[in-house]
Write a structure and sequence with these properties.
The structure is a homotetramer. By secondary structure, chain A is of the alpha/beta class. The first copy, chain A, is 29% helix and 20% strand. At the A-D interface, strand 7, strand 8, strand 9, strand 10 and strand 13 of A face strand 7, strand 8, strand 9, strand 10 and strand 13 of D.
């Protein structure tokens, strides 16, 4: 059994990790920390876990995380970088669900996240946890930078087109929509039910932290210089993410060739579902599951190709992807503990 | 023109007062206070008011509320009692949308609201602003205690039955449901979209502040000793309140007589709609309007009578009712500025 | 492996059976019928099942259901009674998720469901599938009448009080609320998003089919003559049911005794969670799981006791309960394939 | 008083016309037709209108629409073209809220709407009812083609940029999102609450009827050859439309110049609100009102300009815009009867 610790278990990615790990056949939940909730049984905060998770939160200094085999950080940016060096030195693997190790470039990190990076020496060692494009590296990794939710959809959607050199890498437009849980479990007026229900809006249009992550990783994976306009929007639903990805074709290619390209790319990816050409994937078809679904469109058979991508932002976009990485790091079947079927309706 | 001031305009009852008063033909919005937002144009906080309300918030000490004809308090409990005496002394009428003057009994107030009452001498002078049962007193009032949202529905629903002596006043069960806006515009985790959407729960079942208000007022209005079990629930919708009121008949009475009793009671009430016997009123039929609708049921023609009551908790349950009181206090037609039709769908 | 057939797989209880049975370790999905969708792969209708369920719908006459070990009817009322006799004669067990066998009294059935009963001889043989109160009978059954969603909550909530003779069985008031999926997957205006979102209403207050089912079963289980006022309401959420059960205590009893009574009753029931006295269970704590949670209240320590009960109407209220029955009928552990943790948020 | 008839009053645009016209100071509601609901009081179908609209539906052959001054068609495509010629001949003005007269090109109409056009001779006479770009023509019109909801946002958002020749007219990408009421009040599974709540999806990506309308009208208004990729999506909210419009700048221009361009264009348009550069308009800021709000963005100060546009699809996107046209046609102030403030929250 893999002994698992979770730092910061009171947010949505934390409780989602608990939901998944509590039924994972190879995992023993060992510790979960929260300074504020020290001593509180986890199931008192999240009644969905009553009878299923017996752990209580413990203050960080009381939890001996060095006894774990792997520690997940479901924390705000900046926490993992403070604790990862000691854990790694103790032989504990680390999966950071925040952004501390997502950007290889320290200056870019500090510009976008407005905090100094305290262990830049780990940036090169950290492995970007997007299994579909980086599986081998993850298998040998000690430190995982779990991808952002939006970047997961954008990278998997654009990668085949960029890799094949079919589109103008300098003119990508990603119009993306997320459920409200993406904003986290924080007491804020903007995400109150009465503010975000029966409403739709864009946010951070001038610049969002997931733009540099996506552009940099796509360049690493495809060796193409990427220029990306990324526009996030807030949808009145709890979970779910829908990315509408636009690209301009620069070569002659048939729709069948496009479809084959995507199917070939993801034929061995258990969590990527390439739907028939012209499908309209719905976010609910992934609700609660680790599946990401996508479909191709080409309006008027013109030179614009559209990739529609959906996922559950808390599963494939966060906690599920992190468990997927853990499975690979520990030599388990990639799908272990991740076979939940989406809740529909 | 009536010069109107609003204390505490940043919450949901505040912005709802603004929506109603901005189109009221006899009102001139004169001042709106908020210590925290001093100087901020109201329309910057509430874009729905862009081009319609030119006022900016001002700190309380800068706003000369004594120049107003009437001041509405859309504030937490305890604010109105601090400022009302001076305003009344200056000849300004006061409408408190909070609970400071709802309970005539000081001890009961202090027990339920956990704060000392600082001007108990005004409790007797304060007039309970439920126009349908207290119209004359409101017309002559200087200080209005605007009723709570739940109590409005419970009083109007139970009153005809109690007044006629048809039911057991000692065995009332009110099962009530409210939209989330009733919790106010406060940064709290419990009313986040991701917490209260796609969910339903009861709250404060052990005891809610609206129980003593309702019981005491019903006793005043009907001279019957009332014992009330009141169970509030939270519905995943922004606005709307639905009260399902149960009572045990103690006299022989036909359904036609019951229906006639209610129709006669409210035939001159412009904001109470007694629907046909056996109807199922929907909250959305009142969304954004000052109408309250109700319908009678008698399952199996047994001795239980059910009154279903719906309203918009922010209009008839709060801001609209306050404007209705203002109209009466200033000798205007009761419906002035309150003729909005519900938004449906 | 248990060979399972499903009749009527295009509704919400049908797809929910598929979600549960597709991951059940002892089940082999063998046939699923739909006259209208003959030949259509199930996953084309429900993309959540892509890659997980390979079956296609087949017309009833093509599907050889007699080869199954058990057949679930997720159909409108009246279908199971037409097909059950032949299946039972062929040695196939039958679980009806509709109402055909819920009422032992043929006249009552025909009065409430407005259709003649075509195999009344099976009514006595049919076993009511409420495992928590009827486990032994279910283990030996060939024909299961799966309980209605509302009746499940009402029976489990009232049973301990009635059985112990603590309450007035002639004055039960059940104020119940259901998510919209309870209305089924039918093209109707009343359950359109634009009609039932941001809205709350009661329905069928004059009389609902779940009243006679609940009253009759409670009488069978407790031997008390039950009189029940049951008021259903529609909540703008997909899944979830919340019953607020009122009863009048007729004996002296402490809150601790009440709590102990319930805990003792359900200590061996893996899907009933008796929460601490005074808790407010939320429907979302059961979303997607087979758990039913309940909590006791006693406002003002008076003579009214309130039981709050929540469940997912499609799982414990329908498909999950049916699988629970199947597990018992085939000698499996009661929880097999039903260990999903609720999705929260 | 203007005598108004409505053909097809049972859908969402119909009831929205009633909500607006019932409080319009210069209108007398004269007739409302529905074959199916002949004789039913309008308020029985829409309880929000109880006490406010006394009319009953009447069968088309009973309603003498020729006595009206103006008739609104809130019908499926194809109805207005059948009745408009006779009404126009009788001197009655006609406003069609469907698409019968939106496309000047008969062949294009028949290709996209799959029905023959029965009065092509009226296509040239029909005036496109987008007041902000076509005010004078509307003032003199007898027959109005009320714009589609999406086209309203796309035209008002792109027009200033195209007119000024600042962008590549051959590379417009409009990513648009609509509330569910846009799908109408029809009994269909796809728009059930349980299907479209807590979900997000694109639809008709291969081609939507609003593409040719928008492209053709923009060409008429700007004399530029427009090529448009338009992608509609469905948002789980009742009302509201958000268009995210992308364009590539082809000339040097500062953000201040862009902002001034838009402000100048719409300074006399009472229902267009150009918000400060970089704002994020929310759909709810227009809920129930005839306002359309927009804001400009330029990510990274690059060559992509984004226009965010929001409106209530049933008001400015349908019924409100139709009333705005009526006001102009009858020489009234453009804003008469359309001063409702958005409902927020």
């Amino acid at each position: 059994m893999i002994k698992v610790g979770i730092v910061g278990g009171t947010g949505y990615t934390g409780v989602e990790l608990l939901r998944l790990l509590a039924v994972h056949p190879d995992v023993q939940l060992t510790a979960i920390t929260s300074r504020k909730e020290d001593g509180l049984p986890v199931a008192d905060m999240f009644p969905s876990l009553r009878g299923r998770v017996a752990l209580a939160f413990s203050a960080p200094e009381k939890a001996d995380l060095s006894q774990c085999d792997v520690v997940f950080f479901a924390t705000p940016h900046g926490v993992a970088m403070a604790q990862a060096p000691a854990l790694l030195a103790a032989g504990v693997k680390v999966v950071d669900l925040a952004a501390d190790f997502r950007l290889k470039d320290q200056a870019s990190f500090e510009q976008w996240y407005k905090i100094p990076h305290t262990c830049p020496e780990l940036l090169e060692q950290a492995v970007y946890g997007l299994a579909e494009l980086n599986r081998e590296a993850i298998q040998g990794a000690s430190l995982i930078a779990n991808p952002g939710c939006y970047p997961t959809t954008m990278q998997l959607g654009y990668y085949p087109l960029l890799k094949a050199g079919l589109i103008d890498a300098g003119a990508l437009i990603a119009d993306c929509k997320s459920g409200v849980s993406g904003a986290g479990r924080k007491a804020e007026i903007g995400t109150l039910f009465s503010e975000s229900s029966d409403n739709f809006k864009a946010y951070s249009v001038a610049g969002h932290r997931h733009t540099p992550e996506t552009a940099a990783q796509l360049q690493r994976f495809t060796e193409q210089k990427v220029d990306l306009v990324f526009t996030p929007h807030l949808v009145p639903m709890i979970r779910g993410m829908h990315s509408t990805l636009y690209a301009r074709l620069t070569k002659e290619v048939s729709n069948e060739e496009l479809q084959s390209l995507f199917e070939a790319q993801y034929k061995d990816a258990p969590f990527v579902d390439v739907m028939p050409f012209g499908s309209h994937p719905e976010t609910r078809s992934t609700r609660g599951s680790n599946m990401l679904r996508m479909a191709l469109h080409r309006p008027g058979n013109g030179n614009t190709v559209i990739v529609l991508v959906v996922q559950d932002n808390l599963v494939k976009g966060a906690a599920g992807q992190a468990v997927q990485c853990m499975n690979l790091m520990f030599g388990l079947e990639e799908t272990t503990g991740l076979t939940q079927i989406a809740l529909m309706p």
